[in-house]
Structures are given as C-alpha cells and as structure tokens.
From TrEMBL:
Identification of the protein by name: Protein kinase domain-containing protein
Superkingdom, taxonomy of origin: Eukaryota
Keywords associated with the record: ATP-binding, Kinase, Nucleotide-binding, Transferase
InterPro entries cross-referenced by the UniProt entry: Kinase-like_dom_sf, NEK_Ser/Thr_kinase, Prot_kinase_dom
Length: 373
C-alpha cells in the first residue's frame, strides 16, 4: 500500500505478521453522511463484514501513531466500533505533513435509518440511550470523547446493538463532554419525534408531555440546558438512567424541590394553556351577559328599604278613633322608602271610609318586619 509503517491490532482477525495490503481488498470510496469520505475494504478469504478507513493529516513532529495505536487497541467496549489497524505514510513535502489511515469495522445501517423505518416504544428508546450513555461513560473515564453524536454517525446492528466511534487521538477540552451531552439530548428528541432540525427543542419536549414518561422528558431537558455548566456529565446521566424508577431525576437532592418546580413549568403543555384561556374567555362572556342585571340589582339593594310596622299602625289607629277627620293625616301607613324619591304606592291607598279601614287593619296580626330588597 506504499506505507512506511503498518500497525495491526492484536484483537483484530488479521495477521499482524503479514503486510496489511496482502490481507484486504479495496471496495471503493464512499461519501458517508456521518463519517465523511471513507474507503471500504474486504478481508480476503473470509465472510467477515467490511472494513472502512479514513485519513488524518498531521504534522510529522506532532505524530504519535504508535501511542494512538496502542491506546486504541486497549479500548474494548461492546458499543465501540472495533479497531483493526492503522498506517502512516512518509512525509513527502517541505511541510513535513504525514498521512495516517485508520481501519475499523463497517456497519451499514445507521441509527437514523432505524429511526425512520421502525416504530419504537419507550422501552426500546431507553435501551438505545442506555447503550450510548454506557459507552460514553467508558470514554469519559478514559479521557476521550465523541465529538459528533448524531443519528448518522451512530450505527446499529440487526440485534439492536449500538456502535459508535470515538474521537481518535484527541483529548477533550473543557466543554467537549458537555457538548457531547447536548448532542445526545438532541438525538433523543429525534428518537421521540422522528424529526431533525427542530426550531424549538424545549417546545418539542412540552409537546411530548403525556406521550412519554416524565423521567425521560426530564432527562432530555437537563441534557439540552443552554448553560453547559448546568448539564450533567455522562457519569451523572448514567446514575439518572439507572435510578429512574427509584427516585426523581435530579443532580442534587438539596435542589430537588426547586428543580422539580422549574421542570414542571418548563414541561407544561400548550393544551393546558389553551384550556385556561378558553375558561377565562367563557367567564368573561358570562360576566358581560349578566352585567346589566347585576348592576340593576346593585342599584336596588343600595337604595331601597321596605319597612312595615303594623303594630305601630294599629296603635295609631286606635288613638285617633275619636277624630275620624284627622285619620288621613295621622295614620302611619307602610310604605316603600326610596332614597331621594317619592313613594311609589301606599298599602292604605284603598280606604272607602275610615270605618272600613279600621276593620281591615284589625284583621292583621301585629308583627314587626324589616328586610331589604
């Protein structure tokens, strides 16, 4: 293959005592949506899956191909794509740029293809999350990161085993892990909605309320927090996932109540807001329809008092029996007293004669009444 140096992983199904070019056959180039420009290879005389390789260009003085090879050979995890070999070319130009080529197992089906073709239950989604988080915890503890978590750079086997590739030969910076956490949160939203390029991720989580468990939505909300310092790392996420049935998801039990209150407000549904708005509109309409009646009742209540003292009226009638001519002037009649108005009627408007009136009044049982209208 014209390479100066070839290093083969002793875990790979290759003969490290034999030249790599004699063991594999070129299957052509491929522009992969998640991996970029890659080259496919087939191992001779085997039915093993294809390999793929990609190139990295680096200054010769910064080259550490042997260290990278030894470290990558030591990484053994069921969800990591298997590493097979690497080669390094001789620096040919004045800039002393060296070309390195890395060989890995190739898996054809991406997670994106699986998402688009399969109706997944929440249990299946949790299993995918658990696998990704588990391998990312492994990389984090090895001081490595992914750098490109998305549905097209992650592969899935027929047995639903997740396979992904780490960032070869690079240590994470301050925010690399938290960036991977954010990217995983976006990937989970795609698992839930089957959609990418969401305009408002928090709004999408709110729309999913009631369709998935609160634990799952809470976890996603934490992973896509705008502040990287508030996002959990993969060790914390793994703890949340493992204990999701035992206790509410929270980074700190001391902040449990405040966190849950904040999450409840963030994951409120648009439907509830619409119901509240509709109820408010109905209440306002009812109030407007009853407003004229309520105002008229208020006017009557504030201004009208009906008083009736029949006992006093009988006493006054008896005291004036000797002077019938004064009966009309001295007889106290029950009347409706209106503030600032004349009485509308009198209960003694029909007399006929003073004698008739006294007879009618004697039929009334004396009682004192006072009530408001």
């Amino acid at each position: 293959m014209g390479n100066l140096q070839t290093l083969i992983n002793y875990h790979a199904p290759l003969n490290y005592a034999q030249d790599l070019s004699e063991q594999i056959i070129d299957q052509g180039m491929l522009e992969h949506p998640g991996l970029g420009s890659i080259q496919l290879w087939k191992i001779k005389e085997t039915n093993l899956p294809l390999l793929f390789s990609f190139h990295v260009h680096i200054f010769e003085k910064d080259s550490s191909i042997i260290d990278i090879h030894n470290f990558r050979s030591s990484l053994q995890h069921p969800n990591l794509i298997e590493y097979f070999a690497c080669t390094s070319s001789k620096a040919l130009n004045i800039g002393k740029v060296q070309s390195q080529q890395f060989f890995f197992a190739y898996y054809q089906k991406t997670l994106k293809e699986h998402i688009q073709s399969t109706a997944m239950t929440e249990v299946q989604i949790w299993k995918i999350i658990e696998q990704i988080v588990d391998v990312m915890v492994f990389l984090q503890r090895k001081n490595r990161y992914h750098g490109n978590i998305n549905s097209q750079s992650i592969f899935i086997t027929d047995n639903l085993h997740i396979k992904l590739l780490d960032k070869i030969g690079q240590n994470p910076n301050r925010n690399s892990i938290k960036d991977d956490v954010y990217d995983l949160g976006i990937l989970v939203i795609e698992l839930l909605t089957k959609r990418t390029n969401q305009l408002n991720f928090i709004q999408q989580i709110k729309n999913l309320y009631g369709k998935f468990t609160l634990q799952l939505l809470q976890l996603v909300a934490k992973m896509i927090d705008e502040n990287p310092d508030k996002r959990p790392d993969f060790n914390q996420i793994q703890s949340m996932v493992t204990n999701r049935f035992k206790e509410p998801i929270s980074l700190n039990n001391l902040e449990k109540n405040a966190y849950q209150n904040k999450l409840a407000s963030r994951i409120s549904t648009q439907g509830q807001l619409q119901n509240d708005k509709m109820k408010s509109t109905q209440d306002q309409s009812l109030l407007r329809s009853q407003y004229p009646y309520l105002m008229s009742q208020k006017s009557v209540i504030n201004s009208t008092i009906l008083r009736c003292d029949t006992n006093q009226n009988l006493q006054d009638s008896q005291s004036n029996n000797a002077s019938p001519s004064n009966l009309n002037n001295q007889f106290l009649t029950p009347r409706k007293i209106l503030s600032g108005q004349k009485p509308l009627y009198s209960t003694t408007a029909y007399r006929g004669s003073p004698q008739n009136q006294r007879y009618l009044d004697n039929q009334i049982t004396p009682r004192n009444l006072e009530f408001n209208l």
